[in-house]
Write a structure and sequence with these properties.
By secondary structure, the protein is of the alpha/beta class. It is built from 13 helices and 16 strands.
């Protein structure tokens, strides 16, 4: 009798345990998991926070509509410490241990290339919305990777197109002294030669990474008496260059054309020195579409009390990531499946009309084709930040004019 009693007790215990465990298993199966790999520590951590805020907003919005394919979405994130080897380790953990359906990230071309390799190894869809190197979708292409954001070609081409519609004739250029800087220089000059032959680049300087004193370069620029400057620097170097240029004779609002000025941290540091800086980007708060106005209002209502203004509005990198996820969710709904092969089939040539216009995913390289927007930083009040920001008048450059050419030299899959 004692043996029977023990067995019955054990059976009851197992049944109770099953009741506790099975709902968790069912719940897990009813979730769609996204694994984000971004820098959440170190000097680049603000980009991680922006991307996380963007993805979470898109996830919450999708969940409020009933989820994705009837399932709730769980967003997991890991710190890549801005190191490619760490990015690989964290992505593998998300795929193998956390069983994510998608991996995503990451700021920085080396990190994005590393995640492309992980995506290929585990046949897991990877959504890229930030790193801009052309080689990510070119020579380092992954069939499982999709970039739903601008790239270096978009930025350089749209900046050249913006220059072409302005009255300035003679430009002096400064670029960082590494491959991307020299490629951007060649790109801008090539486009200007075709679309605006009246424009002359009267000089070009290449500055080593980490340059703090731009005085010698600016002295040469001043001697050439250009009508405007082209600046390919970014981050701290961009801030230092513009501040020094303003003090050495190129006073605000002397026109400076920059691909990377539309960053709240940059503009907060530059303040009035940023006035007169022309820039281009894939998304901007000033886009007047009803969809965009509704989106930024809703986002700001949720984030206006954040301690850091970087997440008050969906601008810059945050806007890129947010729109990328909205397009991704629309494609998955059309595919009506989480099967990577069906998602690939759907995303290739997928068209989506969103807050920033129509975006089309090109089949051969999985690079989204999108319009670009350009404008100038203006003084005075604006509806977003307590420092100068881009003005309300935007130039629009069609996707077909600013997309990287689909050649075999760029990607063997392209015609």
């Amino acid at each position: 009798m004692r043996t029977i009693s023990v067995r019955m007790s054990a059976s009851i215990f197992i049944c109770l345990l099953s009741l506790l465990v099975l709902p968790r298993i069912t719940m897990a199966e009813d979730m769609i998991r996204i694994g984000m790999v971004e820098p959440f520590s170190g000097p680049m951590e603000s980009y991680g926070r922006e991307c996380l805020a963007a993805a979470q907003f898109a996830v919450d919005e999708q969940d409020a509509k009933g989820g994705l394919l009837g399932k709730k979405i769980q967003l997991l994130h890991e710190d890549n410490e801005f190191k490619p080897d760490v990015a690989v380790k964290r992505a593998r953990k998300l795929v193998l241990e956390d069983k994510v359906n998608f991996i995503t990230g990451s700021v920085g071309t080396p990190m994005a290339v590393a995640l492309n390799h992980v995506a290929t190894s585990y046949k897991t869809i990877m959504i890229q919305y930030s790193a801009a190197g052309d080689l990510i979708q070119g020579k380092e292409f992954s069939r499982y990777g999709f970039r739903i954001s601008q790239n270096i070609y978009n930025l350089g081409a749209s900046l050249a197109e913006l220059m072409a519609v302005k009255p300035y004739k003679n430009y002096y250029e400064v670029q960082p002294d590494f491959v991307a800087g020299r490629e951007t220089d060649a790109l801008i000059k090539g486009i200007l030669k075709t679309s605006a032959p009246q424009i002359k680049v009267v000089g070009t300087e290449y500055t080593p990474f980490g340059t703090n004193d731009f005085g010698p370069y600016l002295t040469k620029m001043m001697a050439a008496k250009p009508d405007a400057l082209i600046v390919g620097l970014y981050g701290v170097e961009l801030i230092n260059f513009i501040k020094q240029a303003r003090k050495m004779g190129f006073a605000s609002p002397f026109p400076i054309f920059s691909m990377f000025a539309l960053d709240p941290y940059v503009m907060q540091e530059l303040k009035e020195d940023g006035v007169g800086v022309y820039t281009t980007w894939e998304y901007e708060l000033r886009i007047k579409s009803p969809e965009n106005q509704a989106m930024i209002k809703k986002f700001n209502e949720q984030h206006k009390n954040d301690k850091d203004f970087i997440t008050w509005w969906p601008s810059s990198s945050l806007g890129n990531a947010l729109l990328a996820w909205k397009m991704t969710f629309a494609a998955i709904e059309k595919a009506d499946s989480l099967d990577p092969e069906k998602i690939i089939e759907t995303l290739e040539n997928f068209q989506w009309k969103g807050p920033a216009g129509q975006w089309t995913m090109r089949k051969c390289d999985h690079q989204v084709m999108l319009p670009m927007y350009g404008g100038v930083i203006e003084a005075g009040s604006n509806p977003f930040y307590p420092f100068p920001w881009i003005g309300a008048k935007l130039e629009v450059f069609p996707a077909e004019k600013v997309v990287v050419p689909a050649t075999k030299d760029y990607n063997q899959r392209c015609p």
